[in-house]
Amino acid sequence: MSSLDLQDKIYTEADRLLLAGRQPTAELIIESLSCELQDAERSLINWWALVPQRLTQTDAKLVLPDVPEALSQAFARVWQQAVQEANSQFVIDKHSQDVGLDVVRREADESLKESKGRLLELEERLKEEISKKEDILTQVKGLEAEIGVLEVNLAAETSQKKQEEQNRLNVEQELNHLRKTYDDSKRTFDQRIKEEQRHTLDAVSKADADVRYYRGALEKLRDDIGKKESALTKNLHDMQAELARKEVKNDTQKTQIKSLEDELKRIKADTTTQTRDLSKVNTSLLSESNKNKRLEDKVKALDEELRKARQKQVNLTTEQSRREGAIRAQLKEKDDELVYALAKTTSLEKKIIAQDEEVRRLNARL
């Protein structure tokens, strides 16, 4: 079935439904003709646009089933009159719509002319804006070049700042290492000094104890020697007195020499024995004197060792002071380097802040 035949059938079915007092719908047409929904809707829309014409064409064919002919003719006349009134109203509405369309068309033409004028004006403004944009683009390119240079300078300054920061960190690490080394050296040196002092004090204490012991022994020995010398001197004096008395007695008793020869021999023998004893005592005294000299030499040696130990302690104290002064000088030098690095870092930060301000100013100008 062609589309025209289908459209005619849909129009006829819609006319029939309308004349039967029912509103034509796509569902009713599909039930009657078994066609597609899209075709029914499209044809029904076109039919509604042609309803006035089709009503005038179908006025003569108006037939009401199961109604008397007189009533049917009266109803047909009423229907025809209603259709005529509807047609006249439709013509009036169409005319008013046409007039409105003319007014709208004239207004549209005027608006179009105004729009064209505005369009020309906008085109002129657009050309001016394009020229301004080109100038601005030129300025932007110049500013971008300046920004590129500033960014390069900023990158260089940033790298320099990072290098300075790294140098500062290295200096701080070296300073911390030196401080740690100084603390370790000081602690080790103090410990060694304490150990040396303890050993020295122990040696001095031992030497003092030995000196006190030997001095006590020497004093005791001197007391013993003094006592022995006193006893021997007393014996010697007694013997000398006895010898003098005997010599006086010998002088006074020369006449009795012969009778006293035996006694003299005995006395000589006793004198020889006493002389031998005196020699022994002198030998013992000499050995004791030598022993005292050796003890005195040993005391002098101990005093010399004590003096050397004290001198060594003084030297250690001096060496500690010298090392501490050197470490403090090195620490002060590192502190000066750190202060210089911090000052340089501060100046670089100020310079970077100034460049950031310049970049922000250029960005604000953009």
Keywords, please?
91% helix; 366 residues; 6 helices; mainly alpha
Q: Looking at the structure, what is the overall shape?
A: rod-shaped
Low-confidence stretches: none
Query: How many beta-strand elements?
Result: 0
- How many helical elements? 6
Q: From N to C, what is the helix and strand string?
A: HHHHHH
> Compute the gyration radius: what is it?
74 Å
Main sheet makeup? none
Overall structural class, as computed from helix and strand content, comes to: mainly alpha
- What distance lies between the first and last C-alpha atoms, to the nearest angstrom? 72 Å
Mean pLDDT over the full residue set: 76
Strand content: under 5%
Percent of residues in helical segments?
over 70%
What does this structure look like?
- There is one protein chain.
- The protein is 91% helix and 0% strand.
- The protein is mainly alpha-helical and 366 residues long.
- The chain starts with a helix and ends with a helix.
- The longest helix is centred in the middle third of the chain and has 184 residues, at 69-252.
- It has a domain at 1-55.
- Helix 1 (3-19) crosses helix 3 (37-49) and helix 5 (69-252) runs antiparallel to helix 6 (261-365).
Summary, kept brief:
The protein is mostly helical.
Question: In terms of topology, how is this protein built?
Answer:
Blueprint: H1 3-19, H2 26-33, H3 37-49, H4 51-57, H5 69-252, H6 261-365
